[in-house]
């Protein structure tokens, strides 16, 4: 009996984990997709993808179809098919063509979620970054990200490494790799982002977007990564590449 209950729990868990993917039928019904939508594929697909994305970093805050082509997520075969739909009057699009259109759209929506991993190339000014972090952490300002990272997120050895980097005249390639690893480790931690602290940096739409992303209490690893990667960038935008340029 215990084995049966255990198996049922496992099956339920697997179903729950897989339920995040959208379905073709669900998208068609939710957005009233029809053959006119297929004909106007650039507009309709972009609209659906933006609406379904919980994080604008997934498509770089640009047209998601353009972003997909840059990332190589749209094949030439798919592009030529969609281009054919755009040149075909809606009343001449077949049921099979419409079905293929909705399948492509569904696959694109499900491909959007991505994990962001900071790379060495994403640190535009390593020395400037560590100098800024140390200076900001010592600031009399009540709250700021660097002070919060020093006091809450980093352990003594990690912060000592950042201070040591700041005392150097410049950082070697080996040093930058160590700095990248420190930042990547910070992003993995559940205590990295604090809404009140980050609002001390600026009150803006992008900070509000971040706060909304972070509202969910029990986050998946992907959700935690998305929140913290954006938080790291918004803390130091002058020193880091935009999040959509990070690795995955």
Automatic annotation (TrEMBL):
The keyword Signal applies. Residues 1-18 form the signal peptide. PROSITE patterns: PROKAR_LIPOPROTEIN. Keywords: Signal. It comes from the Bacteria. This is Lipoprotein. The lineage of its organism: Bacteria, Fusobacteriati, Fusobacteriota, Fusobacteriia, Fusobacteriales.
């Amino acid at each position: 009996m215990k084995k049966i209950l255990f198996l049922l729990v496992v099956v339920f868990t697997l179903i729950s984990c897989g339920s995040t993917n959208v379905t073709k039928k669900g998208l068609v019904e939710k957005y009233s997709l029809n053959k006119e939508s297929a004909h106007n594929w650039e507009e309709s697909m972009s609209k659906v993808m933006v609406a379904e994305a919980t994080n604008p970093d997934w498509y770089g805050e640009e047209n998601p179809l353009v972003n997909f082509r840059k990332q190589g997520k749209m094949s030439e075969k798919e592009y030529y098919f969609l281009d054919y739909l755009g040149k075909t009057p809606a009343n001449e699009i077949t049921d099979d063509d419409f079905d293929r259109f909705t399948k492509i759209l569904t696959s694109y929506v499900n491909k959007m979620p991505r994990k962001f991993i900071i790379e060495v190339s994403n640190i535009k000014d390593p020395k400037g970054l560590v100098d800024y972090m140390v200076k900001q952490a010592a600031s009399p300002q009540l709250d700021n990200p660097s002070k919060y990272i020093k006091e809450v997120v980093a352990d003594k050895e990690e912060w000592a490494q950042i201070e040591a980097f700041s005392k150097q005249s410049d950082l070697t390639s080996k040093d930058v790799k160590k700095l990248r690893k420190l930042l990547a480790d910070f992003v993995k931690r559940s205590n990295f982002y604090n809404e009140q602290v980050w609002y001390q940096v600026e009150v803006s739409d992008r900070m509000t977007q971040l706060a909304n992303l972070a509202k969910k209490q029990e986050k998946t690893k992907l959700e935690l990564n998305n929140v913290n990667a954006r938080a790291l960038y918004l803390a130091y935008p002058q020193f880091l590449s935009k999040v959509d340029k990070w690795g995955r």
